[in-house]
Specification:
The structure is a single chain. The two termini are 25 Å apart. Strands 3-2-4-1-5-6 form a 6-stranded mixed beta sheet. By secondary structure, the protein is an alpha/beta fold. The chain has helices at residues 14-17, 31-43, 58-73, 100-108, 116-123, 125-135, 144-159, 176-186, 213-216; strands at 2-9, 51-54, 81-83, 169-174, 202-208, 217-221. It has 2 domains: 2-91 and 147-221, Phosphoglycerate mutase-like (Rossmann fold), CATH 3.40.50.1240; 98-141, no CATH class. The model has no long low-confidence stretch (mean pLDDT 97). Helix 3 links the parallel strand 2 (51-54) and strand 3 (81-83). GO terms for molecular function: fructose-2,6-bisphosphate 2-phosphatase activity.
């Protein structure tokens, strides 16, 4: 069973504007954030969705409801929106809400890499999570394994939905670092991952529900 996933990064938030880490914490959409949701809704107006998912954060839920509202106005049947913690952004623990540059310095400097990009270049994306988990005095920031266990459970939830079938289109409101992580893990060469996905952008994945996770995801397009 192949599902066509349309992953949308939520609209811009206050923390996005101020360049602060925003994982399990939350902040409201800005005016630009509502415009991002409207723009994404217009892009997806002609897609009939059999299911819709988002994380249980206000920024994701508001973005999802606006996209589905536009989709319904275009004549499509509106699926039930399922909000679940498995679709949350990475948990940054102690560093939630902190300035990004300061947080990644705290994580990477002990390893000789003082920025997010430097950590990725020298040690790989998994190290960004493991280093932050290590630097967190409470160790509440998710390790790489904790993160992927949760994200993979989200894919399992989608696969078990009785309302989807082979060829179904599924809307999923996602988050910046999660989209980038999915691309690093599953994308073939040829994608520019030097920039984070834009708020309101659409990334398309094909998901084969009957294959092991490493073989189940094919990237169709990124950051559109």
């Amino acid at each position: 069973m192949i599902l066509h996933l349309y992953l949308v990064r939520h609209g811009q938030t206050v923390f996005n504007r101020y360049n602060r880490l925003q994982g399990w914490s939350n902040s409201p959409l800005t005016e630009q954030g509502f415009a991002d949701a409207n723009k994404a809704g217009a892009k997806l107006a002609d897609i009939a969705f059999d299911a819709a998912y988002c994380s249980d954060t206000t920024r994701a839920e508001v973005t999802a409801r606006r996209i589905l509202e536009i989709n319904e106005q275009a004549g499509n049947k509106r699926p039930q929106l399922i909000s679940n913690m498995h679709f949350r952004e990475q948990c940054y623990g102690y560093f939630e809400g902190q300035d990004m540059a300061q947080a990644w310095w705290a994580a990477g400097a002990p390893h000789g890499a003082g920025t997010y990009n430097a950590i990725v270049e020298r040690f790989g994306l998994a190290a960004t999570r493991d280093f932050l988990h290590e630097a967190d005095p409470f160790h509440d920031a998710e390790s790489d394994r904790q993160y992927w266990d949760r994200v993979e459970a989200g894919f399992a939830l989608i696969a078990s939905n009785p309302n989807v079938h082979d060829g179904s289109n599924v809307l999923q409101i996602s988050h910046g670092n999660t989209l980038l992580s999915l691309m690093h893990r599953f994308a073939s060469e040829g994608y520019d991952l030097s920039e984070r996905p834009s708020n309101g952008s659409v990334t398309r994945l094909d998901f084969d529900t009957e294959k092991p996770i490493e073989q189940a995801i094919r990237v169709v397009s990124y950051n559109q």
